[in-house]
Design brief:
Elements: H1 2-28, H2 30-35, H3 37-66, H4 69-100, H5 115-119, H6 125-131, H7 137-143, H8 146-160, H9 165-190, H10 193-208, H11 211-215, H12 217-243, H13 247-253, H14 256-264, H15 267-280, H16 286-299, H17 302-318, H18 325-341, H19 348-359, H20 367-370, H21 374-401
Subcellular location: Cell membrane
Keywords: Cell membrane, Membrane, Transmembrane, Transmembrane helix, Transport
Main location: membrane
Length: about 400
């Protein structure tokens, strides 16, 4: 264990160095930074390559490992409840922050239009529910549609509990081998992390520029402050309350995964790294991590929920619309509900923001004012999403070990 911790500590140091050098490279050599984007894209592609077989096999193995439907129902309900709790607390922190330090003076916006908004189909709960169910599992696997894959893998795992024991054992051995092989490949990819991070960060800095960041520094700082508060206060408090362990020691041990999430801005691309790190240095049982983390990468969106709450209130201030306390409460409920449900849809964050703005009668045109720094904030909120997943995984693991779940 000490050797593994030392290995990840070395990787973390190299990754942080990659971030620093990437920022400097993006600032002082922007043309070169833009030209080397392919290196970062190759790195992300390697990670995404692992996601579908890893999610399918890990969900299947973990469900069959539970042994019966009662255990699946009990643990599944508690995991989802924990994810909803962390998301709700993130939204609450965002609402409180925006009321204590309101941002945004009234700005007139004419002629601005966010093109992607008009391309998206209208949201409905019917389409959301239907998007969970795969009409063709092979299509879902090829497209990497996570919610349909998770639903099918869960049903497949439950069905396997009802076949002959010998056949069940053969399938479990096969998918366990698949999962282990994917995690070994993930270990190889982890060695490329410093190079991949350097490429991704330098491209973002060169592409976004610093002028845009300076112009929206108050808004940017507010979002980052709320995300930071949730990461270092709320989540550690929950981890200590439920598991009675030192939360900061655990978060320090698994920091490789949030750093990776910040660099890639993708919870799914980070999933192979999250699963390996949380097992090797976080002390979480593989069976528990295999169930909790793939589900969390799909439905847990603490950072996204906090960001959307701040963005909505910021746009309301810019457009001169003051939301009442009741409307802010309704906003919080809407964000929590949508963060769980809309994750299966493409452009999830954009869909959620458009739905919320329409719900409160706020102009979509104001999205154009904040979209410039969205990539940077996307990296930060994804890091928080992954941190929340890792905290919930540890809570569930500790509670199971103590037989409290």
């Amino acid at each position: 264990m000490v050797k593994k911790i030392k290995k990840y500590s070395t990787t973390n140091t190299l990754v942080l160095l990659g971030i620093v050098l990437g920022v400097l490279f993006g600032v002082f050599a922007p043309q070169l930074a833009l030209g080397q984007q392919i290196i970062g894209e190759i790195f992300i592609s390697f990670l995404k390559m692992l996601v579908v077989p890893l999610v399918f096999s890990s969900i299947y193995v973990s469900i069959v490992g539970l042994g019966d439907l009662k255990s699946l129902r009990d643990i599944g309900a508690r995991v989802i409840a924990l994810y909803i709790l962390t998301t709700a607390l993130a939204v609450f922190a965002a609402v409180m922050a925006m009321n204590l330090v309101p941002l945004g003076e009234v700005v007139a916006v004419e002629g601005l239009e966010y093109a992607k908004a008009s391309e998206l189909a209208s949201f409905s709960f019917k389409s959301m529910i239907l998007s969970f169910i795969p009409t063709n599992i092979f299509h879902s696997l090829s497209e990497g549609s996570m919610m349909p894959i998770i639903v099918f893998a869960s049903l497949f795992g439950v069905a396997s509990l009802h076949v002959a024991k010998q056949k069940e054992l053969e399938m479990v051995n096969f998918f366990t081998g698949v999962m282990d092989a994917m995690l070994i490949i993930a270990q190889w990819v982890i060695k490329l992390t410093p190079i991949g991070v350097f490429s991704l960060i330098s491209y973002v800095v060169a592409n976004q520029g610093v002028d845009v960041i300076i112009g929206l520094w108050k808004y940017l700082l507010m979002v980052l402050a709320v995300l930071f508060f949730h990461a270092v206060v709320t989540l550690p408090a929950l981890l200590f309350f439920f598991s009675r362990i030192n939360p900061f020691k655990y978060l320090s041990a698994i920091r490789e995964a949030p750093i990776m999430a910040f660099s890639t801005a993708s919870s799914m691309a980070t999933l192979p790294v999250s699963m390996r790190v949380v097992e090797e240095v976080g002390g979480v049982d593989k069976k528990n991590a295999s169930f909790v983390l793939p589900l969390g990468a799909t439905i847990s969106m603490d950072g996204t929920a906090a960001y959307l709450t701040i963005a909505t209130l910021y746009i309301s201030h810019l457009s001169g619309v003051d939301l009442t306390l009741f409307e802010q409460l309704l906003l919080g409920v809407s964000v929590v509900a949508l963060s769980v449900g809309v994750a299966a849809l493409p452009s999830a964050s954009l869909v959620m923001l458009i739905v919320i703005l329409k719900q409160f009668g706020l102009p979509l045109e104001y999205i154009a004012l904040i979209i410039a720094v969205d990539r940077i904030l996307d990296m930060a909120r994804t890091a928080l999403n992954v941190t929340s997943d890792l905290v919930v995984a540890k809570i569930v693991d500790e509670c199971l070990k103590r037989k409290n779940i």
